[in-house]
Structure formats: C-alpha cells, structure tokens
C-alpha cells in the first residue's frame, strides 16, 4: 500500500505542501510546492476564509507535482496552548479522557470548545504514580476551519498535528545532542519556540509576533505603504550603514522593532530555564522567513548568549527523482513545517 503523505503548512504569507514517501528506509521527499496567500485568508496559522483557501489548495495541487491526496494538516495558531501537566498514571486513553477535568481552569477558552491531547515527555519510574507531559489544547473552531478547507479541496485529512511538534520531529533527526536545543521559527505573524531535550519537545510557546510587525513599524515610521516597507526591510536589515538621515530613520526603525521580537524570544527562553534549573539550552536553531532579517541571527546570539544558527532540517531525508535537489536545499527551512507534518508516524 502506498504510504505517501503531504504535509500542509498554513502560513500567513504562503501556503506550502511537501510530499514524502515514508515506505523507504530513509524517508524521501517526492515533491513540494507553494502558492502566495493573499492578505487576510490565513492568520496566525488558522484559515479565516475557507472558500478562498479551498481555491488556493486546488491551485497548489494543480501547479505542483504533488501526487497524493492524503494529507497531514498543521495547527500552528497562537491559540494553540502547550503547557506542562502532571497527571495520575493510567493508560494513554484514560489519561486523555481525564484531561478536561485537569485543565478546565488552565485554558483561555471554554473547555467544551477545546480539542485536547497529552504527550508524556519525561521518563518515569515504573512505580511512579504520576506522569509528566505536555498538554496540547487547540480551539476546535480553528482546527475545523483548516480541516474543512482541506476536505472541500478534495483532499483526505489523515491527521492533524501541532506545528511545533512537526518541526521538532524533523530537526531532531539531525540535532539530537546532549544539551537542550531551542528551535525558533520566526514567521510573518507568529513566532514559535520549541525547546528540545535529546530530540524530545519539552516546552513550546507560540507568540503572536513576527516579521510583519517589523514591516508595519517601518511603514508607520516612514509613512510608506507595506509593500515598500517590506522591500526596504529586506534590503537594509539591522546592519545597513545609513548614508543619509532618512536612511538612519529606517535602520533605527528596523532595529527597534527587531529588538522587540528578540526580547520576546529571549524572555521566553529565560522563563523556561528559570523554571527548569537542571536543564540547559545550549543553542538556538532558526527557521522561518523572519529569521532571514540581516543581522538578526547575530543580535539574537548577543541577547541570549546562546549561539544561533539557521536550522538545516533536511539532514537524513533523501530526494526523489522529481525533486530538484539544489533548489530544495536552497529552500530547506521554508518547507520544514510541511515536511515535519508529512513525516508523522515515521520517526
Ligand atoms: N530576507 C528577508 N529579510 C527579512 N525578512 C524576511 C526575509 N525573507 C522573509 N522575511 C520575512 O519573513 C516573514 C515571512 O516568513 P514565513 O514565510 O516563515 O511566514 P509564514 O509561514 O507565511 O507566516 P506564519 O508562520 O507567521 O503564519 C515576512 O514577515 C517577511 O517579511
Ligand atoms: Mg510559518
């Protein structure tokens, strides 16, 4: 039986999909593709305009050579909540059934509007009476919107997974070290931070900020439209040496907004380390278009005192005959979410 799956990443700026053949010894990338997302269709990882997204999905399937209709859908919305939880030890099914009672007072939305899951994380003694893990809670209405768009586009939803676990799965292939690794995906409207210990996610935060906030700030400070601000931001980044007063205003604006983003990452990682004294985070791996801002990697390293490098998530994957390997490698980080989703069940 064919076991090819495509993962779908609902990005704010692009809809991306990647198809993986999981039959082989080493998972093989068969195809990938993306289409730009017009503003307002997808926000913070959630489909907000289902009809238009159905059309986009059809366009993506007809313009790429993705062959499968079996898809794994990602949820990366900022309303997805992933928190530490300790529950009495019992079967996985029982623990899951008991979740609403454990978490009713911990959610920012009513528990009967939530889809809940529990992921045990820490090794427990055989005679321990409790299990440490991560609670995953998503708003059902958000999950249903993404699933409905996919189903109406004629695709079969095989599974729904939270985006940080999907990327962690892919990066862990490559980076299972002793120390903790913080995976930071800076998108347009969401920044997702995942701390992996020995390749296992131990902490996740999704905050509603990203590269778009820098563009918006620049547009407001210069009084220009968002398209111009976007081009200028990409050109000057945080490191450009200004040759005129207007250029200095622009560079200062980008630096200021980028530092707000960096501070949000720094304080989140600091929070995790303060709460988990025995665990050290040794380095940062960056994903997402927002991390491409010139000078951001270095500024993040300086602010956190942790070496930040770009993630190379294609480590052990091989490339099928239809994939242009050089092109795929050049776009590695862009497809990390879609690939990580497609790989589910294959780790
Ligand atoms: N070279 C670059 N320099 C600076 N910023 C960049 C660069 N390339 C992309 N970006 C920024 O990256 C952001 C888009 O990143 P990405 O494609 O990862 O987002 P997304 O997945 O569509 O959105 P999200 O994950 O927030 O839903 C935009 O804000 C864009 O301005
Ligand atoms: Mg993204």
From TrEMBL:
InterPro entries: ATPase_NBD (IPR043129), FtsA/MreB (IPR050696), PilM (IPR005883), SHS2_FtsA (IPR003494). CDD domains: ASKHA_NBD_PilM. It holds the Pfam family PilM_2. One of its GO terms (biological process) is cell division. It comes from the Bacteria. PANTHER family: CELL DIVISION PROTEIN FTSA-RELATED, ETHANOLAMINE UTILIZATION PROTEIN EUTJ. This is Type IV pilus assembly protein PilM. It comes from Plantibacter flavus. The lineage of its organism: Bacteria, Bacillati, Actinomycetota, Actinomycetes, Micrococcales.
């Amino acid at each position: 039986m064919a076991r090819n799956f495509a993962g779908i990443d609902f990005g704010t700026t692009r809809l991306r999909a990647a198809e993986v053949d999981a039959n082989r010894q080493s998972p093989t990338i068969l195809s990938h593709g993306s289409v730009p997302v017009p503003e307002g269709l997808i926000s913070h990882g959630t489909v907000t305009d289902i009809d238009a997204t159905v059309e986009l999905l059809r366009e993506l399937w007809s313009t790429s050579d993705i062959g499968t209709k079996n898809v794994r859908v990602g949820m990366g919305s900022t309303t997805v909540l992933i928190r530490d939880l300790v529950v009495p030890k019992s079967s996985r099914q029982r623990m899951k059934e008991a979740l609403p009672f454990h978490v009713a007072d911990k959610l920012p939305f009513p528990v009967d509007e939530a889809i809940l899951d529990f992921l045990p994380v820490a090794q427990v003694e055989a005679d321990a009476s409790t299990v440490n893990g991560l609670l995953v809670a998503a708003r059902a209405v958000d999950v249903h919107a993404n699933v409905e768009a996919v189903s109406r586009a004629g695709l079969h939803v095989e599974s729904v997974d939270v985006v940080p676990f999907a990327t962690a799965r892919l990066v862990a292939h490559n980076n299972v070290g002793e120390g903790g690794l913080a995976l930071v995906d800076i998108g347009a409207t969401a920044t997702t931070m995942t701390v992996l210990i020995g390749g296992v996610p131990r902490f996740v935060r999704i905050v509603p900020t990203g590269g778009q906030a820098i563009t918006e700030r620049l547009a407001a400070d210069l009084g220009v439209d968002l398209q111009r601000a976007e081009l200028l931001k990409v050109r000057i980044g945080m490191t450009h040496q200004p040759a005129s007063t207007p250029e200095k205003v622009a560079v200062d604006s980008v630096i200021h907004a980028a530092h707000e983003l960096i501070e949000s990452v720094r304080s989140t990682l600091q929070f995790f380390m303060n709460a988990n004294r025995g665990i050290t985070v040794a380095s940062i791996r960056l994903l997402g278009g927002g991390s491409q801002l010139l000078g951001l990697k270095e500024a993040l390293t300086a602010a956190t005192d942790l070496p930040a490098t770009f993630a190379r998530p294609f480590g052990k994957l091989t490339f099928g005959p239809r994939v242009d390997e050089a092109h795929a490698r050049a776009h590695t980080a862009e497809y990390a979410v879609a690939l990580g989703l497609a790989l589910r069940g294959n780790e």
